[in-house]
Design brief:
The structure is a single chain. With 251 residues, the protein is mainly alpha-helical. The protein has a domain at 2-136. It is 41% helix and 0% strand. It has helices spanning 2-5, 8-46, 59-67, 73-84, 91-112, 120-125, 127-136. It is rod-shaped and about 185 Å long. The N and C termini lie far apart (196 Å).
Length: 251
């Protein structure tokens, strides 16, 4: 019985299993080296300082998540959940969650590398090919894209600040404010309507022509006489009063 267990057939099976394990490990190393190299090129485009970040396991995916506007700590949450809960058979849920989140990060990174959203399908099926194309094509990093839909989520959104790793710029003041209609002058330009008065203030009166009175004309003041008219002068003569009448003559 022992000869059957440790016989020539079992030795051949063990040797074949060892050969498969060796080639599997070799392929894994090659994939890791290529993936880290491609990530290094993408990090260079994004302005990440320090190429070593692309070669550190786990940490390189955290940087990739951060470039994709996702919290980098999600990588640790997913790996920790997959390792701790795999013994009860639900660790695969966390592994699937990491795969979905990495696709979301790749979608955002692709947008910043001037790629259409459909490119994320290539990442899902051939992530190494996706990394290689984005690493060596002529695309440029453009962080000024619309914020992610999960940017306001405290759990998914990126709130971490790391030295040497760029973050998604915040929207400038007035972002999303509607511009004036075509042909409508802006405030302060010729032809623009005056701004409305403050609440509780009375607007100054206007005359029939629409012009406002000068500031020096106070309310209640007598208007000056019309131009070109002067009062008549008194008649010329003696200014002395007339003499009284003479008394009647005596008979």
């Amino acid at each position: 019985m022992y000869d059957d267990v440790y016989g020539p057939d079992s030795s051949a099976i063990l040797a074949l299993a060892g050969l498969f394990a060796f080639f599997g490990l070799l392929i894994g190393v090659v994939f890791y080296v290529l993936g880290s190299w491609f990530l290094m090129k993408i990090f260079d485009k994004a302005g990440v300082q320090g190429r070593w970040r692309a070669w550190v396991p786990v940490y390189n995916m955290m940087v990739f998540f951060k470039l994709g506007d996702l919290s980098p700590w999600l990588v640790l949450y997913g790996l920790g959940g997959a390792l701790l809960l795999s013994w009860i058979g639900i660790g695969y849920v966390f592994s699937l969650a990491i795969a979905v989140l990495s696709a979301m990060a790749a979608y955002r990174v692709g947008l910043k590398l001037q790629k259409e959203g459909a490119w994320v399908v290539l990442y899902v099926f051939l992530s190494l090919v996706w990394l290689g194309i984005n690493a060596f094509d002529k695309s440029r990093w453009n962080p000024n894209v619309a914020p992610a839909t999960w940017a306001g989520n405290g759990f998914l959104g990126d709130r971490t600040v790391w030295d040497g790793v760029p973050t998604q710029p915040a929207a400038a003041p007035g972002y999303g404010q509607a511009a004036p209609a075509y042909g409508q002058p802006a405030a302060g330009q010729p032809g623009a309507y005056p701004p409305p008065p403050a609440p509780g203030a009375y607007p100054p009166p206007a005359d029939a022509t629409g012009a406002f009175p000068p500031a020096g004309d106070a309310p209640g003041a007598c208007p000056p006489p019309p131009g070109g008219t002067t009062p008549p002068a008194p008649p010329a003569g003696d200014d002395r009063p007339p003499a009284p009448p003479a008394p009647p003559a005596q008979p």
